[in-house]
Amino acid sequence: MKLPVSTEWVLHCATTLAQLKPGATASAAQLAHYYDLPAPYLAKQLQALVKAGVLTATTGPRGGFRLGRPAAEITLLQVVEAVDGTSAPYECREIRRQGRGALPPEDCRDTCILAAKMAEAHDAWRRSLAGVSLADILASLPSTAPARTRSRLAGTS
Amino acid sequence: MKLPVSTEWVLHCATTLAQLKPGATASAAQLAHYYDLPAPYLAKQLQALVKAGVLTATTGPRGGFRLGRPAAEITLLQVVEAVDGTSAPYECREIRRQGRGALPPEDCRDTCILAAKMAEAHDAWRRSLAGVSLADILASLPSTAPARTRSRLAGTS
Lengths: 157, 157
Fold this sequence. Notes:
Strand order of the largest sheet of chain A: 1-2
Strand content of chain A: 5-15%
CATH topology of the domain at 5-87 and 133-154 in chain A: Arc Repressor Mutant, subunit A
Structural class of chain A: mainly alpha
Helix content of chain A: 40-55%
Mean pLDDT of chain A: 94
Largest interface: A-B, 57 and 57 residues
Radius of gyration of chain A: 20 Å
Shape of chain A: elongated
Number of strands of chain A: 2
Low-confidence stretches of chain A: none
Distance between the termini of chain A: 40 Å
CATH superfamily of the domain at 5-87 and 133-154 in chain A: Winged helix-like DNA-binding domain superfamily/Winged helix DNA-binding domain
Oligomer: homodimer
């Protein structure tokens, strides 16, 4: 059970964009330089965040990415699921219905209890990540972080 | 983020073995017939459960698999981690230390807050599955289930 490596990228990039001044943007190239990541692949991930509404992309000479809504309204779950999808890690293929032990249909009206317990665990994981916003992450950073981030991102430091 | 298909197999097989009479065993072939699964691959998964102490394997003409300890002392987490391992789905590669935005070492003494939040979510998932034992699963089955299971497993019904 593995999340893609790009999960770390998008969590950090969203956190970085959350430190921009209102209305400011950063390009995929700037973010790629900031974290030394492959720009084309990073750009694809950022587009996935745009599709999910986490980011907004603006075009033109000063175009780039910025948060699609306030940092307090973007959760880590939304960022993670934007790139990894929302499907649960456990897939129930209903093996209870097959083979010599196959249960009759009338015994399979309810969700398999094992699938239900695996789904509860996934819900617990989702709730945990849904309880943390980008604003919470920013609040945990040193007060000097946003100014440093903006300056390094612009390549002016 | 996906669990292997064999996760469903081992959860069901462990539940099935929990319904045997004390001291009784079932072979990989019997379990494979019971759920119509590929026996050699299932046998490998059952061996992983033995290695984790969830099951015990006995040899000889009446040999096979049985629970390695009472059903109340075997959690779904132990079954799942026996086949999928214990590593967390999120891997922090410390991209905060690289690129133009690289943080100095003194700012990286603590775990990255994003990695910490992802770890908390994994802990929530693990706690959820650690809170459910095979005995809990058995308690949710119809009272007629164990007798049916034993008879179908033995191929006598």
